[in-house]
Amino acid sequence: MRRIIHYGAAAVIIPIYGVQVCPFVEGLPAFSVIIPIVTLFAVQYLAGKLLWDSLVNKKPLNSQVRSAFRVELLLFLATGISLTIFNTVTFSFPLESGLKLIVGIAGLGFFAAIDIALQVERNVAATVLANHTEIEPEEDYFPITTRMVIFATISVLLIVGIFILLVIKDLDWLVKVGNDIPLADGRVSIIKEFLFVLSVTLPHTLNVIFSFARNIRSSFDAQNALLLQTTLGDYSGSIPVASADEFGVMAKHTNRMVDTIRERTEELGRTRDITIMSLASLAETRDNETGAHLLRTQRYVRALAKKLKDHPRFCDFLDIETIDLLFKSAPLHDIGKVGIPDAILLKPGKLTDDEFEIMKGHPAIGAEALAVAQKGLGPNSFLILASDISLTHHEKWDGSGYPAGLKGDEIPFSGRLMAVADVYDALISKRVYKPAFSHEKACKIIIEGKGTHFDPDIVDAFVAIEDEFCDIARQYGDENTN
Length: 482
Fold this sequence. Notes:
The protein has helices at residues 2-21, 23-26, 30-57, 61-91, 95-131, 144-177, 183-231, 246-285, 291-308, 320-329, 342-345, 353-359, 362-377, 381-392, 413-428, 439-448, 456-464, 466-475. It is an all-alpha fold. The protein folds into 2 domains: 2-220, no CATH class; 288-480, Hypothetical protein af1432 (Orthogonal Bundle), CATH 1.10.3210. One of its GO terms (molecular function) is phosphoric diester hydrolase activity.
């Protein structure tokens, strides 16, 4: 479509241009000027369709833009030379007249070739994006800054050259007509010629400038979008490497940078998760509980959080990222037990009042240990959640829990979730001081604690997904992890 527009515009502009700059063309009948030009541009268009198939479309993607520019510029030059030969043979035009026409046609061809090449550049980018491929940037690529400088220089030279041709022609014309026409009429005629040249060259120049800007903006938009995505912690994106110039190089290196950040982040995440589980398991080894308790409780917490993520009370903050952090923080809920003496922690019977007071200190011990980590690592949502879970998972909805006697929504959401998960798992698990309760009995105890021990909405969520709790308990049973 762009080729049709440029060829049609050239077929209209060149006859008028020829009349303006060449007295020999001006002296011909209109049909003798128009028909050869229109015919040659029609032939040029048809020849171009054949050449594009072999010289542009079948070329590798990284060379199609350059090939399109060359083909179009050569086609316009060929048309200008052909028109010059035709006029010389048919009307005995001097070489000077032919050169003027070649300059005009080549000038239009220059603007058309750049505009069409820039469109091909956009098409190549769309192809790369659609096919999930990429272009390998060339080491000796042609910088876009150099291209723009060359375009600006040639544009200025063409416009100045055409105006010089107009001035020469008008001076010859004024000498010939002498006093035969009024000076005012001559002035108006010259101004019209200059306005005609501006009306042709200015839109062509602006069109190419806007086309350049469109392509550059597309590259910058893709770059900025990926950088923003990466800044927000999503490392899954990439930029299509859709050009062989500096933007292709930038895209290639940006993609490598994001890949490296993703790999390093994943490695740090795995290291963090392994460290968490190791620390939590170390605490569990000192207790009567097993490592499977950690696996089960963190999955209970995730299941409850997913069920509640659309609840009006929790939907504002309970997103996918927070649910994942809750899942990874849950194993640290009893990390404070490392500070409890073995005589109390491992006692098979019921604790005395004094011993229970010491045991009640483990939430604060865990929170204090995590607070030390927070000071070293700075503000971190993961550590905040872990600290809240450690400190408040023994608090109760009615305020009768420990260590601070928090009540209702004073208890962090993470602590309320952990309370249900921890109590359920303790009920269904065998301990030296109690047998394992059935799922049905554990559910009954949880439901009885609604509004006293537990947040009522979390209990409702637990009841709604109790089958999922059963599946988790079965899959991660103590006998399956030994």
